[in-house]
Specification:
- The protein has 11 helices and 8 strands.
- It has a single domain, classed as Histone deacetylase domain (Arginase, Chain A, 3-Layer(aba) Sandwich), CATH 3.40.800.20.
- Helix 8 links the parallel strand 7 and strand 8.
- Strands 2-1-3-8-7-4-5-6 form an 8-stranded parallel β-sheet, sandwiched between helices.
- The two termini are about 35 Å apart.
- The longest helix has 21 residues.
- The chain has about 400 residues and is an alpha/beta fold.
- Helix 4 packs parallel to helix 5 and helix 7 runs parallel beside helix 8.
């Protein structure tokens, strides 16, 4: 018996080596080589050569485009830091250990925004169904501040581009290990945008925000959604949390486009976080988001990267699988990693990498409908979120 055919989606992938200029220097966790290795692996498995895939070189976003989500004074501050990286910079979050200033930072940051804008424009025009910018997802940047390795917020700019292009409802789903605080802040009081962030609790992880009682501004109660997960959550509980919150709210919200942030720093081998998630679970979440876009948005979906600091064995595999999900390629967690790519990593970095794109994880998880266990910390986190926002959308926090 033959298996069902894999759905194929026209997809615009944003990529060019110029995106490697977003570089905070040696020993900084946000190593641009993770993007280079991802692009090399995407190419090695043949995704760039598929007929449904088009590649776009991103342009540097104009100041007017940046100012759709950032304050003009902040953009000016970034340019000043660019011109004088050794200077002192007020309270804009620039020149810190997390976001040190460097020469060329404005154009490098604005180019990543240009990439997500290009993906949004391609989806808006109808020329493609999906857009992918694995170099984007800089979700900590706020309207007037840099934070957490993020200078400009490309994902927020893409959401705003969609709104300005006539889209009435955008669902933003963020599965990075860190709270998507910048994107939440920018759309805090805009009920045209629902932001859902599933992340390690701010009690144990930067930026210390993203609790269930953060539900949006006075005109948008219930449109900021946060699932603050306990440390060492693991695959089954993480997927249980995702499916206990995201599909129900997507159905209630009825988005026209989904923008998602796929930081893979939730991985068990990531040096900065504690959630202990596998590449397989990250892949499963991407599949679920794609399915939601197919169900509610006529397949209009823009996927970005984000955090991820194991640059050789995790980031390239996770975002190659993300790209494969977007384009509808028959590439899965059991697909072998091409030998030439593995040899390149070993020779260049002296590190061994897994033989398969996935981790071979068991992804069994129990549906929320099976029951709520108040003795489980993950279930308490899920219920806190459902109680905070579900009734605001006509949903029952216990049963929907």
């Amino acid at each position: 018996m033959s298996s069902a055919p894999v759905p194929v989606f026209s997809t615009r992938v944003v990529w060019d080596d110029s995106m490697l200029a977003y570089n905070f220097g040696a020993n900084h966790p946000m190593d641009p080589r993770r993007l280079d290795l991802t692009a090399r692996l995407v190419r090695a498995v043949g995704l760039f050569d598929l007929p449904q895939v088009s590649i776009e070189v991103p342009e540097v976003a104009a100041d007017s485009e940046l100012c759709t989500v950032h304050a003009a004074d902040y953009v000016a501050a970034v340019k000043a830091a660019d011109a004088d990286p050794d200077g002192a910079y007020g309270t804009a979050g620039l020149g810190t250990e997390d976001t040190p200033a460097f020469s060329g930072m404005h154009s490098a940051s604005a180019r990543l925004v240009g990439g997500s804008l290009a993906a949004a424009d391609a989806v808006l025009s109808g020329s493609v169904q999906h857009g992918v910018n694995f170099g984007g997802g800089l979700h900590h940047a706020g309207r007037a501040r840099a934070s957490g390795f993020c200078i400009y917020n490309d994902a927020a700019a893409a959401v705003q581009r969609l709104l300005d292009g006539g889209v009435q409802r955008v669902l933003y789903v963020d599965v990075d290990a860190h709270h998507g605080d910048g994107t939440q802040e920018i759309f805090w009081d805009d009920k045209r945008v629902m932001t859902i962030s599933l992340h390690e609790t701010g009690v144990s992880l930067f930026p210390g925000t993203g609790f269930s009682d953060e539900i949006g501004g006075p005109h948008a109660h219930g449109y900021a959604v946060n699932v603050a997960l306990p440390t060492t959550t693991g695959d089954s509980a993480w997927l249980r949390a995702f499916h206990a919150v995201v599909p129900q709210l997507a159905e209630a919200f009825q988005p026209e486009v989904i923008v998602s942030q796929h930081g893979c720093d939730s991985h068990v081998d990531d040096p900065l976080t504690n959630l202990r998630i596998s590449v397989d679970a990250q892949h499963a979440a991407a599949l679920s988001i794609r399915d939601l876009a197919s169900r509610y948005c006529e397949s209009r979906w823009i996927a970005t990267g984000g955090g991820g600091y194991n640059i050789t064995s995790v980031v390239p595999r996770s975002w190659t699988l993300l790209t494969a999900v977007a384009v509808g390629a028959d590439i899965t967690t059991t697909t072998p990693v091409p030998a030439e790519w593995r040899s390149y990593v070993t020779e260049r970095y002296g590190r061994a990498v897994p033989a398969l794109l996935g981790d071979g994880a068991d992804l069994w998880w129990q549906s929320w409908e099976a029951g709520f266990d108040p003795n489980e910390s993950v279930d308490r986190s899920i219920m806190a979120t459902r109680k905070a926002v579900f009734p605001l959308h006509g949903l029952d926090p216990w049963f929907d």
